[in-house]
Amino acid sequence: MSFPGLPPMPDFPTGEVWLAGAGPGDPRLLTLLALHALATADDIVHDALVDSRVLGLGRADAKLIAAGKRGGRPSPHQRDINEILIERARAGRRVLRLKGGDPFVFGRGWDEASALAAAGIRFRVIPGLTAGLAATALAGIPATTRETNHAVVLAAGHRAEDGTLTTDWAALARLGQPIVLYMPMTQLPGTVAALLRGGLSEGTPAALLQSATTENEQVMVSTLGALVADARKNGIGSPAILVIGAVVGLRRQLLRNLVGWR
Ligand code: SAH
């Protein structure tokens, strides 16, 4: 694939794995490199979160392999996914490992990259637009403004399966910076309670951004105190991003003129 006026796209040699981010859903938010990878790959090993419209951009004869982890559903073990990538590469395929958002943001991209490195397989990483920043921007919520914050916390609401990492919610609350939470839904009441105990007030603006850039998109603005009840009332489910902090309140000033993603 080539784009007039741009530097040439890299060759995708057989036996190589490209670990790429597919962005939040809408294919128009793919990078040109990810599009090039889709148009070239022999095998596309994709996550459950990768939008079907994105997969539709793959070669008609490409082999699609679903290998996604998804909370609450039976999903392949990470070891098995690593093994598929290594096997396919050794079989001389051009393997595209496609993940929602960015591969290195709560996407287990590191597990796969390090397994490929250990196996002596050449690979390339193609960043993607991460959901936490894309969903917020599209909803008219700035990640930073000069008036409100000089840092943003990206955190995971759902704890690692092996329980090795725990989140100190009180410490995050004390930072006084906006918190962008991935995978917030499974432990929503517990997380919200911990942030309130940690010192955030019930009136802190909070928004749930469900399925950004897809047909199921929903933006729900609330406050930390009312969030759990409001989420239930509005039937908000995964995948969703939770944003907490003053930046959420700024959205109101944009709404009248903000044009949606469609
Ligand atoms: N690597 C991905 C994150 C994977 S973790 C990235 O960089 O975006 C999965 C979580 O991502 C979901 O639980 C949800 O919190 C978030 N997510 C992914 N796509 C989303 C979308 N279109 N809208 C809202 N949240 C999304």
Can you give a write-up of this model?
This protein has 262 residues and is an alpha/beta fold. It folds into 2 domains: 17-126, Cobalt-precorrin-4 Transmethylase, domain 1 (3-Layer(aba) Sandwich), CATH 3.40.1010; 131-253, 2-Layer Sandwich (Methyltransferase, Cobalt-precorrin-4 Transmethylase, Domain 2). The protein has 9 helices and 10 strands. It has helices spanning 32-40, 52-55, 78-90, 109-119, 131-138, 169-175, 188-197, 227-233, 246-250, and strands spanning 17-21, 43-46, 63-66, 95-99, 123-126, 153-156, 179-182, 205-210, 218-223, 240-244. Strands 3-2-4-1-5 form a 5-stranded parallel β-sheet, sandwiched between helices. The protein has a 5-stranded mixed β-sheet with strand order 6-7-10-8-9, with helices on both faces. The protein is globular. The mean pLDDT is 94. The protein binds S-adenosyl-L-homocysteine.
